[in-house]
Specification:
The chain is 69% helix and 0% strand. The protein is mainly alpha-helical and 196 residues long. The chain has one domain.
């Protein structure tokens, strides 16, 4: 994709979200890449934690929808993040509906665990730990809304307000769901399981 203004690129416009968004809308490849790289890893982690059959496929579908709808988006960076995760959550809800109609096999993710195990980056380590079967089992013990709140807050790093927007709830309701979810998760940990 070529920019409609070939002499101006993302670097020349600065690094603000508005500048990157404007550059992406004008077709600048580097702007698309910045938007993608800014959120793709978190969307992938969200999809994995929601037990998507193909997290990479979810990321691809989400960003295809994001990039084709970019001109219709209006808002701040926080609102953009909420919009992306709304698309991701809706995509995952559709997958669950399809899966309920026709069960599918989920391939093992041993290669992903091995890849994340050697990472020095804290975010990768947290995502790797969240992806363990033990934590996923604890998340599975939560209500769907509690699990989504935890994933959107912790893995996706959205604000309470952005999570409220994604879920169509008031911020106070999101805070209450988060408190209950964390209480349930902590209750399931034995004293020996909590790292010091």
């Amino acid at each position: 994709m070529r920019s409609s203004n070939p002499g101006v690129d993302v670097a020349a416009r600065g690094s603000s979200f508005d500048a990157v968004l404007a550059a992406a809308r004008s077709g600048e490849r580097r702007a698309f890449e910045r938007l993608y790289h800014g959120l793709s890893q978190r969307v992938h982690a969200f999809a994995r934690a929601r037990r998507a059959a193909d997290p990479e496929g979810v990321v691809n579908e989400v960003f295809l929808k994001v990039f084709t709808g970019l001109n219709d988006f209006a808002g701040s960076e926080a609102q953009f993040n909420a919009w992306v995760f709304t698309i991701a959550r809706n995509r995952l809800i559709d997958e669950v509906r399809r899966r309920d109609r026709r069960p599918i096999e989920v391939p093992g993710d041993q290669a992903d665990r091995e890849r994340l195990a050697g990472c020095d980056d804290v975010e990768h380590q947290v995502i790797g730990r969240l992806a363990t079967e033990s934590m996923l089992a604890r998340l599975d013990g939560l209500t769907v809304e509690q699990r989504d709140v935890v994933l959107l807050r912790v893995v996706s790093d959205l604000t309470v307000e952005a999570v409220a927007e994604v879920l169509g709830k008031e911020p106070g309701a999101v805070k209450a769901l988060q408190r209950r979810a964390f209480r349930n998760i902590v209750r399931d940990f034995s004293p020996e399981a909590v790292p010091i």
